[in-house]
Predict the structure.
Amino acid sequence: MPIQALLKKGSEDPYVIIAQQQLIALGYGLPRFGADGVLGDETLSAYGTFLVSQGLSSPTDERPKSITPAGAASLDMAFAALDHGGPTANIIDERANHPHAGRSVDSPYRPWSKITAVVLHQTATNIGEKPARWHSVPIHFCITRTGKVIQLYDLTEVCNHANGLNRRSVGIEIDGWYAGIEGQPKTLWQPKNLSTPRQPMDLPAVQANAAKATVQWIVDTVAANGGMLTHIHPHRQSSKDRQSDPGSLIWQTIGLWAQNTLGLSDGGAEFTVGNGRTIPQAWDGRYTDNRY
Ligand SMILES: [Zn+2]
């Protein structure tokens, strides 16, 4: 049970903000004050509507003046029954099976406070669905084409995936090969000695959604451990040899989404690390001076 005693109007008990977040998640909006941690009329009205929906109160009852332990318990149960949709349950944990050969030798571990960014990559190959096939890949997470999320490294391990961005970032590989610029097949990286050139792959919705959910999960997990994720970068920004990494399709679907929805930053028009390249206009229309 989340509380032992009544919480009266005006309470700033730590449970209040939890109740508010649960009410919002359950669809009982708090449009004026949001989850502000103070038990006011708006929250009590939403709580009252919730009690009616659960048959715990009648629509003609006046607005409750407090949250009761029984009401809080049923709010908790309703929230627990929600489909949270995140990747938490879907992460395939391969950390114990992976050799961790890509861990930084100079600085193998970092505190949560030093984790500030996500870097997006394309594999430029097709590694596939079997977790064991990813054991040679130095990356925190891989997203397979059927939307599996496989975790290979701890978030607090520094892993050699993105050159000068390694120490601050968590890496995500999107499996598949993608054009540097959609609609321009010449910007697709081609392995040598192929008799027939590759055609760029599409990005299945299940894969894109799994990648977004993973970014969200990383943001939440870093926050839960006292840190704050602020940036998302394409690998291109930290290596001139990664011109098409992860490509415009992945960047626009996941990178721009993370900026617009989660408030992350790509560092801006001029941002690069080491010998990296800026984000080109073909990936982000804001950057009119940046060439591919
Ligand atoms: Zn890369």
